[in-house]
Amino acid sequence: MVSSPHEAMHRIFQEYPELFTGVSQVLGLNFPPPVSATVLPTDLTESRPVERRVDTLLRFDTEDGRAFLLAVEAQGKKDPDKPGSWAYYLSYLYTKYQVPPLLLVVCQDRATAEWAARPVTIGPAEWPALTLRPLVVGPHNMPLITNAAEARKDLALATLAAITHAAEPEAGAILKAMSTALRDVPETIANPIVELIAQGLGKRPVAQQWRNLVAVDLSFYTSPMSEELRAEGEVRGEARGEARGEARGRAEDILLLLKLRDLAVSDEVRERITECTDPELLRAWLARILTATTAEEIFEEA
């Protein structure tokens, strides 16, 4: 399973194009409601050997007969080269499709979001030829959804909010609300959300909390992550079984050697040996039998 916050931050718009309507409303913008959305090729490479690839590209056709392109970029950190690339994307898209393009940048930290949101002028100071103005969403303006009922109202927006707040202190409460909200949701709807959030969390510590919530609250689902969790559980179970078997074997060896050395074994000593489940400790006791004068001496460290 791919575990990349970068993928989740833009791919969610491919899965749920209508999410842009909720995002634009959160940002206080009034775009006409779309009547259709089309995922377009993301390769913006020209015939020259210069490759430009936008993360996600959508075409929206609106109720009033207009259309616009939405280029979604996931940005994990500040990159001084990005504004030039973004300006290229927009001008190329306008030239190719003859439809007004819009750039949406998705971030997971406030510093990067604030940097990405700054207008960038291109051209001499006396007469800038272009001004780049991306829309930016991140932890600074996405809602903190910690209530399951609120999350159910717009699962796509709640998913994006969970991803953008992955590094925030409230992340745990957001994830708990999401897992609760998904309990009564059909599997075909819940599975993509479970996977997108897992991708969006990446390797952050809170990612394990999401895995635990999915294992408990959504154990009946068969998403790739759920199957992975169950497989991990089976492996851990097998490992524990092997460790217990190894410990029993070493305990039997210790008791046998004590008998061969004619060392008296009290019930207390026997119980301590047979109930020990630490193979390394049992190995140490086994080695001490060679020099011990009583059974109790094997428990004493040199």
From TrEMBL:
Highest taxon of source: Bacteria
Name under which the protein is recorded: Transposase
Organism encoding this protein: Streptomyces amakusaensis
